[in-house]
């Protein structure tokens, strides 16, 4: 499992030290340390900043995000970008953002735990990586409700041997207590090993 460490980390010298040989997760809401990630990190992924915008009540400019991702995806250590999503939106709103995504496989769509399992199955069938985002009554990773929903999700995306049919990225799910889930990658804004 690849752990992506969220930036920014201050001071910049601490960010560079943290990322040496590790993986970075840079939010479009806080892109100021992208150069450090490109130069020092083993690999990096880009977050659309929807969670930050949602918590502040702002509407993101997805055109700016597309341009930013297009500029960054040319670096050899770029892995993927989170396709724009509406945190508390419905499936149609999120599917519209996926349809609008101009950068193909450079992106990974988000399935929110409050959305239907059918949507998760469809995304897992169509995309090489799917991000899982805690939301609604499942907003707190590790809660009993969250674990129940994740069990349902794993029944949908894993084969009979428990192997995912697509790569899974856990948004805000780097907590070591969540490692029983077969994630390909996770991220966190806390510095965890």
Q: What does this protein look like?
A:
The protein has 193 residues and is α/β, with parallel strands linked by helices. 35% of the residues lie in helices and 20% in strands. The chain has a nine-stranded parallel sheet with strand order 5-4-3-2-1-9-8-7-6, covered by helices on one side. Helix 6 (117-126) packs across helix 7 (144-157). The longest helix has 14 residues, at 144-157.
Nutshell version of this structure?
The chain is 35% helix and 20% strand.
The shape, in one word, is globular
Q: Biggest β-sheet: count, sense, barrel?
A: 9 strands, parallel
Q: Numbering strands along the chain, what is their spatial order in the largest sheet?
A: 5-4-3-2-1-9-8-7-6
Our Rg estimate from Cα atoms comes to: 16 Å
Blueprint of the fold:
Blueprint: E1 2-7, H1 12-19, E2 23-27, H2 34-40, E3 43-47, H3 50-56, H4 62-72, E4 78-82, H5 91-100, E5 107-108, E6 110-112, H6 117-126, E7 129-133, H7 144-157, E8 167-170, E9 185-188
Parallel strand pairs: 1-2, 1-9, 2-3, 3-4, 4-5, 6-7, 7-8, 8-9
Provide keyphrases for this structure:
alpha/beta, 193 residues
């Amino acid at each position: 499992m690849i752990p992506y460490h969220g930036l920014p980390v201050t001071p910049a010298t601490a960010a560079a030290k943290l990322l040496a040989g590790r993986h970075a997760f840079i939010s479009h809401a806080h892109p100021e340390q992208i150069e450090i990630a490109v130069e020092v990190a083993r690999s990096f992924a880009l977050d659309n900043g929807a969670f930050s915008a949602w918590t502040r009540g702002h509407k993101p400019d997805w055109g700016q995000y597309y341009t930013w991702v297009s500029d960054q995806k040319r670096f050899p250590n770029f892995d993927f970008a989170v396709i724009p999503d509406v945190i508390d939106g419905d499936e149609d709103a999120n599917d519209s953002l996926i349809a609008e995504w101009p950068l193909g496989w450079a992106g990974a769509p988000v399935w929110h735990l409050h959305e239907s399992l059918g949507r998760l199955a469809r995304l897992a069938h169509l995309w090489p990586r799917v991000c899982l985002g805690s939301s609604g009554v499942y907003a707190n990773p590790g809660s009993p409700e969250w674990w129940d929903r994740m069990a349902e999700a794993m029944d949908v995306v894993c084969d009979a041997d428990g192997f995912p049919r697509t790569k899974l990225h856990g948004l805000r799910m780097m907590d070591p207590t969540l490692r029983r889930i077969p994630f390909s990658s996770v991220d966190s804004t806390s510095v965890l090993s």
